[in-house]
Amino acid sequence: MKIFYSIFIGVALGIGSIFLHLVLAPVGFIFALISSVVGIWAIGRMWGKRYLKALAGLAWLLIIMRAGTPGISNEILIQGNVLGNALINFGFLTIIGVVALPI
């Protein structure tokens, strides 16, 4: 059950980051990254397992990567502008960093 919850939290944080990163240009982006980092860090603190943080981080990354690629009708949720590229790049680095942190 912890595995399911970790994946669900990672997906929810990824979806929240997608919708928040363009709100009030720098504030939404910063809030999206901070909330994702704190959420994934909290999974490790709550259950004490690094692999659960890794699962949540992987779910977050899969959602972000899927939102950054064109869909069936060529819709895209993360645009190729400065904030979109920063969400993908800095998000990847921060999520990898928080998963690597000791519990």
Tell me what the structure shows.
This protein has 103 residues and is an all-alpha fold. The chain has one domain (2-68, 76-100). The protein contains four helices and no strands. The longest helix is centred in the middle third of the chain and has 23 residues, at 25-47. The chain is globular, with a radius of gyration of 13 Å. The relative contact order is 0.19. The model has no long low-confidence stretch (mean pLDDT 94).
Query: In terms of per-residue confidence, which ranges show pLDDT below 50 for 5 or more consecutive residues?
Result: none
What would the principal axes of the Cα set say about the shape?
A: globular
- Helices, by number, come to 4
Please state the average pLDDT score. 94
Distance between the termini: 20 Å
Largest sheet: none
Number of strands: 0
Q: What is the CA-based Rg, rounded?
A: 13 Å
Count of spatially separate domains: 1
What does the oligomeric state look like here? single chain
| Secondary-structure class | mainly alpha
SSE run: HHHH
